[in-house]
Design a protein that fits this description.
Elements lengths: L5 H4 L4 H14 L5 E2 L11 H12 L12 H15 L8 E4 L1 H13 L5 E5 L6 H7 L3 E5 L11 H7 L4 E7 L11 H13 L3 E5 L19 H6 E6 L12 E4 L2 H14 L5 H13 L1 H23 L5 E2 L7 E5 L13 H13 L1 E2 L1 E2 L8 E5 L4 H16 L2
Parallel strand pairs: 1-11, 3-4, 3-5, 5-6, 6-7
Antiparallel strand pairs: 2-8, 7-8, 9-10, 10-13, 12-13
Helix pairs in contact: 3-11, 4-11, 5-10, 12-14
Length: about 400
């Protein structure tokens, strides 16, 4: 019996594969420093935990509305109004099982087979694969700007065809940390508006801006808002990764279509997770902001350490919590078949006991992605191991 053809066109996740190998090595007594996973090392905020326990004690564990608890959708609307300057109603919001499902819902609701989606490099590793699963075609675009890899209108123009239906716009960017200015967002958004291109604006890292100010795409104008679907969630900002709460904000028409898709796939996220998310949005801002200060310190530590290393460069990360580091100068020092970065990461993991993500996962094979989602002590230890490792090449 044959499996579906889609199982052949979608490869396993690089990040999950690395995490599995790290777990195996740690179980075998190896002391691996894991700088690969984009998961905050903080715990769920206290008030959010209390809300989850209270929901359990009050038996708030039954089925609820597919687009999410009304209290949570109201809290999301308030957050978007206060923090992003965008007016939405609860009918415009759909709460999903993490931002990944939110993205899948959007593509299923908007795209038809054969539609093209522009995906700027470097991209979050799952974008192309989710697009393929929706039976659309990812169009990978390498920006002319290779210093910061900022997508521009000129880049979009070159990639456009009569089949172009959507732009994947990740701001701040995973993995590059690029934060777009208001002028840049406005130019891209208005071009998409003029050319009838939907914008999926992935804003999951919006709180992680260390240089510049975050601007939500939908805040540019009412007309831009109509062609934009905002994707966000609580996994990164509130360290609620395992609780799986993401959401979309869009027009009522799009939200209704998204809700239909989700209704047949998963119904709604865990109700107790939703109560925790509601508390995180309404009662935990001070605790969440304190975490940002720690990330800012780690970022400074990381860049200082990278500046001391020979023959490497990196993309200046103004947001998110990663750094894309260019090891291309060592290409002739590593034996590899199809991917330099994959071979480099495997060698680094085995010999230096440090896990990072190969740049091929994001469309840049000369690079690796290093996350600073670990303690300053482990971050420093991991970077010292990397420095010693490259000296052996």
């Amino acid at each position: 019996m044959k499996l579906a053809d889609r199982t052949k066109i979608v490869p396993p996740s690089y990040t999950i594969g690395i995490s599995t190998k790290v777990s195996e090595m740690n179980e075998n007594g190896r002391d691996v420093i894991n700088l690969s996973v984009g998961e905050p090392d903080f715990n769920v905020p206290e008030k959010a935990k209390e809300a989850i326990v209270k929901a359990l004690e009050n038996n708030k564990t039954k089925y609820d509305k597919v687009p999410g608890l009304i209290d949570l959708r109201k809290a999301i609307c308030e957050k978007l109004k206060i923090e992003n300057g965008i007016e939405y109603t609860p009918d415009d919001i759909v709460v999903s099982n993490g931002a990944k499902q939110a993205i899948m819902n959007v593509l299923l609701a908007i795209l038809n087979p054969g539609d093209e989606v522009i995906v700027p490099v470097p991209y979050w590793t799952s974008y192309p694969e989710i697009i393929k699963l929706s039976e659309a075609e990812p169009v990978i675009v390498y920006p002319e700007d290779t210093k910061e890899y900022r997508i521009t209108v000129n880049d979009i123009k070159k990639a456009m065809t009569e089949k172009t239906k959507m732009l994947m716009f990740n701001n701040p960017s995973n993995p590059s940390g690029t934060v777009y200015t208001k002028e840049e967002v406005k130019e891209i958004a208005e071009f998409c508006l003029e050319n009838n291109i939907w914008i999926l604006s992935d804003e999951i890292y919006e709180r992680f801006c260390f240089e510049g100010e975050f601007v939500s795409t939908a805040s540019i104008s009412e007309e831009v808002k109509k062609i934009t679907v905002v994707v966000n969630g609580l996994s990164k900002s509130a360290a609620m990764t395992g609780l799986r709460i993401g959401y979309t904000a869009s027009t009522k028409e799009v939200a209704s279509a998204i809700s239909v898709m989700q209704g047949h796939l998963t119904s709604h996220p865990s109700t107790i997770s939703q109560w925790g998310a509601c508390a995180a949005l309404t009662e935990c801002r001070e605790e969440i902001n304190a975490q940002l200060d720690v990330y800012r310190q780690r970022r400074a530590l990381m860049l200082a350490k990278l500046d001391e290393m020979n023959n490497i460069t990196y993309l200046e990360p103004n947001g998110a919590f990663y750094v894309m580091v260019n090891f291309g100068a060592y290409k002739d020092k590593i034996k590899y078949d199809k991917s330099f970065s994959l071979a480099l990461c495997e060698k680094m993991l085995e010999e230096a006991e440090v896990a990072v993500v190969p740049g091929i996962a994001f469309g840049l094979d000369d690079y690796v992605r290093i996350a600073y989602t670990v303690s300053a002590e482990n971050l420093e230890k991991g970077l010292e191991r990397i420095e010693k490792f490259i000296k052996t090449l």
